[in-house]
Every structure is written in C-alpha cells, then in structure tokens.
Write a structure and sequence with these properties.
Layout: H1 11-14, H2 19-22, E1 28-32, E2 45-49, H3 68-78, H4 106-115, E3 131-134, E4 139-140, E5 143-144, H5 147-150, E6 164-169, E7 175-180, E8 185-187, E9 192-194, H6 197-207, E10 210-211, H7 213-218, E11 225-226, E12 238-246, E13 271-277, H8 281-292, E14 313-318, E15 336-343, E16 351-353, E17 364-366, H9 373-390, H10 393-396, E18 399-403, H11 417-427, E19 429-430, E20 461-463, H12 478-496
Helix pairs in contact: 8-9
C-alpha cells in the first residue's frame, strides 16, 4: 500500500533533470522543520516522495556505496556480521549505473581536485572512498530507475492512493494488519512491513501505540510498546553550496548557455566528479570531547568519526548554479558553476514527534542541524577544502571568482569560522537524506528494530527503509536503501520456508 499515486511513467519522474520541478507537485511532500537555532532560526525544507516508488522516484539518482568501515561499524553496532562490508552480499545486486559523460570542463575540474591533493579513484563504490572519483547515477538510457522499475513487481498487488493511518496491534503486541485513512482495514496473513521513510515510519509507529510512552500519552494514544527511541536519532546531510563565475561563459561551459547543447548533457545531473574527504583527528577529537559534555550519547573514546578509514565530507562541482536559494540571485545562463560541501557524518541528532493523534497531520521535525562543535568543524573544513580546489592553477584558468550572496564575504581556503558560520546559517540546505528515526540495534532502550528489522517489543512487524540506519553513512543513501531491501527480502523469505 502506498500513500500516493502510481506516476512512475510521469515525464518529470523519468527525466533526470526534473527533480527540482517535482518539488512543486503533489508527488512530493515538503516537510518543514521547526526553526533551527544554529541556522538563523530558519525552517529547513525536507522533501520526500509521495508516489509509488517513494523518494526513489523523486530524487537525483546519485548512486554511491559508503566506505567499508561504515558498514563494519553498522554490523558491530547491531551485533550481526551480515551487515558488514565483507559479508555484504546485500550490497552486490547489479543495477545499471551511468557515469562518464564528457562535459567541456571535465579535465580542468578533475585536475583541480588532483592539484588540491585528492587521490584519483577509478570507482567510489569499491569500499575505499577517500579521493576523487567519477560521479555515478542509477539512470538507464537517460531514465530514472526508481524502485518499482529496478525491482520486479510481477505478482505483487499494489494499492496506490491508500495512505495508512496506523498498524493494527492487538493486546498480545501482534501486528495483524493496517487501517487506512478512509477506515478500511487490510488484514495481514504473515506480518506487516512499514516502508514509509524516515519522517512517516516513526509517525505510524507512534500512532499505532509504539513509541516513547510520554509522547504517546501526551496525544491520548494507548501505549502498547514503550519504545523510547522511536523518532529519535534523526540525521541528514547538511550542505553549503557556492556559485562560481566562469571566465569564458560564452564558450558553452555550463547549463543555461545555448552552446551547452550536447544531448548527452541532458542524460543526468551535470556533475562528473565527486570527492570524499576526511577531517583530521586532531581537529575532530577535541570537538567530540567538548560535545560529549552536553550530548551524553557522544563517546569520544569510541566514536566512528575517529576511525582511520572514516570519511566525513562529500565535495563536488556542478556545471550549473544548482541548490542555491532564490535569495542568492545567480542566473541560469551558462555564466556560473557551483560547488557543494556536504557533511556526510553529522553528530547532531534531531527528532520526529507527533503534532497530534490525527494521522492526516504531518509529524513535527526538529533537525537540530549544525548543533555540535564537531559538525561545525567538519563543515567548515569542507568549505575551506572547496576554497583550496578553486584556488588551484587548474581552477583559476576557468574560474573568475565566487559570486557571493549580497553583503557576505568571499569564502576562501582561509575563511574564518565566523564567516563560514554566517553563510551556513543563512544559506545551507539539507540533501533530503533523512534517516535514523527507527534505528537498528541490539535492544529497545537504544534502538527500534533488531538486526532482522523486527520492531523490538512487537510481533510480526518490521521496518524496511532509511529510518533503520543506525548512524550516518558517507554516501548518498539510495544504494544502501536498495541493499537493505534486498537483505530484508532474504530475511523474510527465510521465514516462508
């Protein structure tokens, strides 16, 4: 059952470059956070797909696995080696990916990354991700491979336009079916699987009587399972994007120029390279120690962000002024490219709560973005790293300089903390990679589901989506979400034998 319609053949869904246009349709939900104290009290938009295939039918289709160490930490965290990189057959399902379109700036941008000290990697999906590698997407022949196309649904009966109000859980804590918003009830013959995403899955659990007892009682919901972590542990990839003016825009170097007209350019996101970078321990460790004094769940003695193989940042250059707010006022006329510094491994944690017991009401999201010193140090390092890339000889041959928002200074490789923070507070955005709100783990006090994705304290109920991530990964999430679905299918199949 899916809340939205089947629009998987919709031209905006299939078109690689139409993701921003989908944001203005009823196929995408625009969740607004509460005002974010560290981002100038702005509300931050979180997009999520509301159609068959979910967000895989509305995102940009970037396709990256995380570093091997992220999955090994995951396996350790949940106490099950099946989630480790070594045993990760769940990561190996072949899916068509594309990369290697040749744009006019391919070689100078790659050279800029190399001159800035990045290792050249042939593939970012091979376990070792520190370096610069080709941008990879799961497009096929210029069309999106959303989940209902990537996976064979023959024999699967899908109910669309069927939003769920709650899971029906009896007094024995056994999930027996679901109730839809229109009052219909669908009986489960074996089990119920929630795959509603990091915003809605915890909301549905709470509306079903599974969640923090205090939160449920506040809204008059009977507590069937006191699961204190439901809705907590929310994280996303916060990013700062900058615009850079080209020296020779008349040459057709970027999107918007009439000379930027090769049909191949329209077959994916206008990016060729992405770099993954680490922040040195001597910067991170003091920040984590300071954060631990006010955020007890941060343990600086055993924090995954300090592991030797850990990657903290994603860095890229797009051949268009992309992901810039309207207030930035950068024209889409071929005169600019843009950069992104992406915080892959945030330590800030937000939460999802209920606005009411009404299932038609949207949940409340407080992202707590940029609320730890470690997050500030990591994203500041990413912005300075972008400055280093743009200050290389290779970049200086094509880039005239940064076009800044009105009244704010240029951010260089030596920009002050204050100048970077001012830009982040005013212009940072998330990449709509919400996860973690029904986290996987060993017990009900620290997690929502176990290593087989079964909800602690309930029977015949699983969660299978990005909400089960126990922590952030240094990659865009779609490849990992698809892999979770693969392993979940194996786990469920074993119960049918």
């Amino acid at each position: 059952m899916g809340a939205g319609p089947d629009q998987t053949e919709h031209p905006l869904v299939l078109n690689p470059l139409a993701a921003p246009q989908l944001a203005n349709t009823d196929l995408v939900v625009n969740y607004q956070t509460s005002p974010q104290a560290e981002l100038g009290n702005r509300q931050v938009t979180n997009f999520a797909g509301r159609l068959l295939s979910g967000s895989s039918a509305a995102n940009y289709g970037a396709w990256f696995r995380a570093p091997a160490g992220d999955y090994d930490w995951w396996a350790e965290r949940v106490g099950d080696s099946r989630w480790s990189y070594k045993e990760a057959a769940w990561l190996s399902r072949p899916i068509h990916t594309t990369s290697g379109r040749t744009y006019p700036l391919r070689h100078p941008i790659h050279q800029a990354f190399i001159e800035a000290g990045f290792q050249d990697l042939p593939d970012l999906n091979a376990g070792d991700t520190l370096g610069v590698a080709p941008w990879t997407e799961n497009w096929k022949e210029g069309k999106r491979q959303h989940s209902s196309k990537a996976f064979d649904l023959s024999g699967v009966h899908t109910f669309t336009n069927a939003p769920v109000a709650r899971v029906i859980v009896n007094s024995d804590k056994d999930a027996t079916g679901v109730e839809l918003l229109d009052g219909r009830r669908i009986q489960a013959t074996r089990e119920v699987i929630i795959s509603c995403g990091a915003h809605k899955s915890p909301q549905i659990l709470m509306l079903s009587g599974i969640g923090p007892a205090e939160e449920l009682k506040k809204h008059g919901i009977d507590v069937l399972v006191d699961s204190p972590v439901v809705g907590k542990n929310h994280f996303d990839h916060l990013a700062l994007h900058q615009a850079w003016k080209l020296r020779n825009p008349e040459s057709g170097l970027a999107l918007g120029s009439p000379k930027f007209d090769d049909p191949a350019y329209m077959l994916g996101y206008p990016v060729e390279w992405i770099a993954t970078d680490a922040v040195p321990p001597h910067i991170l460790e003091p920040a984590l120690k300071q954060d631990a004094t006010v955020q007890p769940d941060i343990d600086p003695r055993w924090h995954p962000n300090l592991f030797p193989s850990c990657a903290h940042l994603g860095l890229l250059v797009a051949y268009a002024p992309l992901n810039l707010s309207e207030e930035y006022h950068v024209p889409l006329d071929g005169s600019h490219v843009s950069s992104g510094a992406l915080l892959y491994k945030p330590t800030s944690r937000g939460l999802i709560t209920l606005s009411s017991a009404d299932p038609k009401a949207e949940p409340v999201l407080d992202g707590h973005y940029y609320s730890t010193l470690a997050d500030k140090d990591m994203l500041r390092a990413g912005v300075r790293r972008i400055g280093q890339i743009m200050e290389t000889a290779a970049a200086q041959e094509i880039i005239e300089g940064e076009t800044t928002p009105k009244g704010l200074p240029i951010l260089t490789s030596t920009a002050s903390d204050e100048d970077i923070d001012a830009r982040v507070q005013a212009y940072s955005e998330v990449w709509h990679h919400s996860a973690g709100t029904a986290a996987m783990g060993k017990d009900i006090q620290s997690s929502v589901v176990d290593a087989e994705l079964k909800v602690h304290g309930a029977k015949h109920l699983r969660v299978v989506d990005a909400s089960v991530f126990p922590g952030p990964i240094a990659a865009t999430p779609q490849a990992t979400v698809y892999a979770i679905a693969e392993l979940a299918a194996d786990l469920i199949s074993q119960t049918l034998c």
